[in-house]
Amino acid sequence: xxxxxxxxxxxxxxxxxxxxxxxxxxxxxxxxxxxxxxxxxxxxxxxxxxxxxxxxxxxxxxxxxxxxxxxxxxxxxxxxxxxxxxxxxxxxxxxxxxxxxxxxxxxxxxxxxxxx
Amino acid sequence: xxxxxxxxxxxxxxxxxxxxxxxxxxxxxxxxxxxxxxxxxxxxxxxxxxxxxxxxxxxxxxxxxxxxxxxxxxxxxxxxxxxxxxxxxxxxxxxxxxxxxxxxxxx
Lengths: 116, 107
Hints:
Number of strands of chain B: 11
Mean pLDDT of chain B: 94
Number of helices of chain A: 0
Low-confidence stretches of chain B: none
Mean pLDDT of chain A: 91
Number of helices of chain B: 0
Oligomer: heterodimer
Shape of chain A: globular
Distance between the termini of chain A: 34 Å
Largest sheet of chain B: 6 strands, mixed
Strand content of chain A: over 45%
Number of strands of chain A: 11
Order of helices and strands of chain B: EEEEEEEEEEE
Helix content of chain B: under 10%
Radius of gyration of chain A: 13 Å
Order of helices and strands of chain A: EEEEEEEEEEE
């Protein structure tokens, strides 16, 4: 299994509070992704990173920011959490970029976030 | 934006049955992934394919690029195959995921 961990695994927070989720990899992969998974929707890309300090927005980036100061860590921050951000968040890594055809994405175990 | 449709949404079958899950998409792609998500939530990549057919154990995945369609087959299904199976297509703007097929295999 690819070495990807997410922390915390579960979090309950109140509306308006800041929240940071961490994704840590030991595979030295260049690309890292944050997705959210909600009932009735497929996984949706929030943000991704193509290198240290290099990030870009995905399909559902509003209300989220990211940072990548080291190859192994990709942080997702909700500056002021809202109930619509209650979801399961998955981190993923790959050796190639969004259009890479020769590499798979490996997923972390997920973080269940509840905003009350 | 690619539209990815999976069918069926839900499938309940008896142990030993041959299972087929379908995935169709609207825009040309460079590759297609089949993923498995168990009740515990973890997501595992089963296949990545861009043409033809791949087989791994009792799982077979096929893709027809011209028809924009892929199928995932499970032979001799077993209760441990119960999971959500997700199709994802790789285009210029990254992966677009289907909503998944919830499979239950009853003993």
